[in-house]
Specification:
Length: 256
């Protein structure tokens, strides 16, 4: 948490909004997707999902297989409502995931780290996106699976188990990867490299919590400098990378 708080002022000083972006590709994404203020019908589904999790006060036993939580003690019972409020994607970011899937016409998406499915619903709210969500904690994954079934999200598929065992189930070609599990430098970079085998020229990879710790920031710096990455966008809470061979190699810091 201290690293996160210390990092934000530095990010703010170097970041910009759409007016400081000179790449047409990035400018269009910022103005037509990131800063899109339309009230989409799909938002009602996303809001209903978030409300269901935030109003669930049952306690479940959560097993942490990654770097753990900033708020909760490891491997203890936690209220679902508390997890929904303190961990996972916020409503705003779930809605942004929907807009990204819509804007880039994402057909195949992979999510590493389902948790309660608060990020999953953002992607699955776009009916044209097939979402493959990977999670190691059975308790949270089952909650997400049950809620997805209630909301008839047939375009969402759960892959339950340790990432080292389940990542072989990743589709051959993916349009979007949302890496939101195991917040550790080496693991995050390793998952990024594993998923590279499944990307194509127009894929987008999103790395969650890039300032979560010094290690996660180092992972983000390594990812940005990977030779296959052409464009990187630092949004503080997320880092996005693109592989477009026709694009000049550039780095951006943009406020969400």
């Amino acid at each position: 948490m201290n690293h996160l708080l210390k990092s934000y002022p530095r990010f703010w000083l170097k970041s910009t909004n759409a007016h400081g972006v000179h790449s047409p590709f990035v400018y269009d994404w910022v103005t037509r997707c990131l800063y899109d203020k339309k009230d989409y019908a799909a938002y009602r589904l996303i809001k209903a999902y978030h409300k269901a999790m935030r109003s669930n006060h049952h306690a479940i036993e959560v097993k942490d297989f990654g770097a753990g939580s900033r708020v909760f003690s490891p491997n203890k019972k936690r209220k679902v409502s508390a997890i929904a409020k303190q961990a996972g994607s916020t409503l705003k970011r779930s809605q942004l995931l929907y807009r990204i899937c819509r804007y880039f016409d994402i057909k195949q998406a992979v999510e590493l780290g389902t948790s309660l499915g608060l990020g999953s619903i953002g992607m699955a709210a776009n009916s044209g996106t097939q979402v493959h969500s990977f999670e190691a904690c059975q308790a949270t994954a089952k909650l997400a699976q049950n809620q997805m079934q209630k909301m008839q999200r047939n375009n969402w598929q759960l892959h339950l188990g340790l990432f080292k065992d389940t990542l072989k189930q990743v589709p051959d070609k993916i349009d979007l990867a949302f890496i939101d599990g195991h917040h550790d430098e080496q693991a995050t970079y390793a998952y990024f490299c594993t998923l590279l085998a499944h990307k194509h020229n127009d894929s987008v990879f999103i790395i969650d919590d890039i300032y979560w710790s010094a290690g996660m920031q180092r992972a983000w710096e390594r990812i940005k400098k990977h030779p296959e990455v052409r464009v990187s966008i630092d949004c503080f809470y997320w880092g996005l990378v693109f592989f477009r061979a026709e694009q000049a190699r550039e780095e951006f810091s943009i406020r969400m």
